[in-house]
Amino acid sequence: MESPFKEKILTIIQSRFGFGLLAIIYSFGLYLARVDLWLVLVFSIIGFQVFRRAHMSFFIFISLFYYLSFDEFSATTTLLYTVNHVSDHASHVSDVFLLLVKLCVAAIYVLLFYLFRRYFAFASRYIVLISVCIYIATLVLIKVVLPEESSLQIFLWMFIYVFSVAVWNFAYISLSKFKPNWSQMSLLLPMWRSVAVTSAPIHRGIRDFEYVYKQDGVERTSCQISGLRLLYWSLLIRYTGFFVSDVVFGTTTLSYVPFSFHLPNYFGMPFDIYYRFSIPLWKSWMGLFANSFIFLTVNVASLIGIMVSVARMCGFRFYRNTYKPYLANSFHDFFNRVFFFYNELLINFFFYPFWKFSKVLKLPKKTRLFLVTFFTVLIGGEIIHFMRVFRGLENLSLIDMFSIYAGRLPYFFLLGLFSAISVVSKGKSETLPKWYIQGPRVFFYFALYSICTLAQSNYTRMDFVEQIKFFFYFFGW
């Protein structure tokens, strides 16, 4: 039973005037968040409100528009032509190539979807591992077999880029228990992905969207209000991260901070230069915790929270990616509360297949659980991140590309180790302890995560041995 005041607010917002006021306040929040294409997102939200009787059709139209648009990958198209030293007069065909690549990815999606759904449903959990094989085979074809500057090589580079974005949608839709639906094509690149965060909400098909879609007046309005609240909560988190950055490192993101430690930031800095500052260990650890906090607030909780708020304003009540990590009762629970959608990928497409395979080992259940959790994070994390951030390494040979990315192995090793220990040693659910116990416990989980991130510092710029030396430098060795 809603309170009379809340009922009155819901009634006002359901009117055209009320929704217009809500849209203005929301658009101002997007402007403050410095979101790219914020005006486009606002008009899309208004479109959802106007065409809500059409249910999913407007959503499908907007999503397909983004998927087939030329602008989304224009920067990558330019990069690939530069990398392959293609003459300038050939650049006019880049848009045609891009459209062909997207249509090719869509065709592969349809093929895989129908094959797996109709004939190989038992193997749907393994579609990611199959996709990885396709991905690596394409890289080998580009780097070893095909001549440079060829049109086919450019086409395949663009294919890899688009496929690396859409593969998770392929995988989730293949798990759908419902019959094939052509409208699921719209889920290849949902329009809120335009905020340019790769950890965007990924759902399991059109049925999931229909489940979270709120078309009823009161439910829809309540969902939009929650989206508005989430946007401004994400803004508060974002500017808190900026404030910490200004105080610790002396950046000038905000116009004024009362004081600053002006610590040199090792992030992006050659290690030999960082060593010259002769920073005390306590200040180095302060910088480490600050970098982790800034990443989790500005890059994770805030930006993905903004994406979820856009979806909620359109009537889709998505889960939040970061939700109350201060309530975590274990390291694995902390990680799950911070990276919900990423953790879902690991569980659905790596943990379950590995767990099924582990049954042949005839090991005790706790030992299997430890090993499967460890290798899920180690192997799954490497695969997900390599397919996501390989861009920028196109000029390197295949061996150099993999050797540079091997610099992330210490991070996933530690993260997998801490997660596996946490999962195995986790006891029965308990009531939340007092704040003076819960606070230090959550900070301990945060410190463990910070140590994991330390193990991959500047991995694309530094030698693997230098990374290990830098890691032990923080422990005084």
Structural write-up:
- With 477 residues, the chain is mostly helical.
- The chain folds into two domains: 131 residues, no CATH class; 255 residues, no CATH class.
- 66% of the residues lie in helices and 0% in strands.
- The chain contains 19 helices and no strands.
- Helix 2 runs antiparallel to helix 3, helix 6 packs parallel to helix 8 and helix 10 runs antiparallel to helix 12.
- It is globular.
- About 5% of the residues have low confidence.
Task: List its salient traits.
477 residues, mainly alpha, 19 helices, 0% strand, globular
* Total number of beta strands: 0
- Taking all Cα atoms into account, the compactness measure Rg is 24 Å
Helix coverage percent: 55-70%
Strand fraction equals under 5%
Shape: globular
Average pLDDT: 76
Brief write-up:
With 477 residues, the chain is an all-alpha fold. It has 19 helices and no strands. It has helices at 4-14, 16-32, 38-50, 57-68, 74-83, 94-118, 127-145, 151-174, 206-212, 217-249, 271-276, 281-313, 331-338, 340-358, 365-389, 398-405, 409-425, 435-454, 464-473.
